Amino acid sequence: MILQHLNNLTTKRIILASSSPRRKEILQKIGLRFTVMPSEFEETLDPKSYSHPSQFVIATARGKAEEVAQRLSQPGSSPCPHIVIGADTCISLEGQVFGKPKDVDDATRMLGKDKAGGYGIQGLGGTLVEGIRGDYYNVMGFPLHRFCQQLALVLVEERLVS
Fold first, then answer.
1. 158 and 12 in contact (C-beta within 8 Å)?
2. Which of 49, 60, 74, 147 has its CA 20 to 30 A from that of 1?
């Protein structure tokens, strides 16, 4: 799906609007060349104002990407990127969204309720996981499969238009 497009992506300026080491690692594993530029987007969206946790995550990811794209489009900034990747994750259980733990005590509190968000599946937290339905990388912090599908579609459309 994305393999046939990787050579075309070498000519694109790609920005990862995140400081997440997990997201950087995942994208590097597929051979994507990009620059990391953490977003300064204020993560103040209220998850309760969205009908589903996925809508909240998409809105947050979009906000991160748009903030970086806007910053890069200012006069005097480096050349505008072709692609800005924004991402976010959340944990939800029975309709309640759990964000990142504020500190060790908060993570302990989350785990004490056996709720995710305070651990990483690729480490010790993996001992708590019995199974996954879907994309392992999504659980790590980046929906790699969906990203590759969407990027391939954009690249095909771009080729048809240009």
1. no
2. 60
How many CB atoms lie under 10 A from the CB of residue 10? 10
pLDDT digits 0-9 by tens, 99-112: 777 788 887 777 66
Position of tokens 């103040």?
Answer: 44
pTM: 0.82
- What's phi and psi for 92, nearest 5 deg? -130, 145
Catalytic residues: 88
- Options 1.20.1250.20, 3.40.50.10780, 3.90.950.10, 3.40.640.10; CATH of 2-161: 3.90.950.10
As a whole number of angstroms, the distance between CA 148 and CA 79 comes to: 24
- Kind of pairing, strands 83-85 and 96-98? unpaired
Residues 14-43: tens digit of each pLDDT:
999 999 999 999 999 998 999 999 999 998
Give the mean model confidence (pLDDT) for residues 140-149: 91
Q: What is the CA radius of gyration of the chain?
A: 17
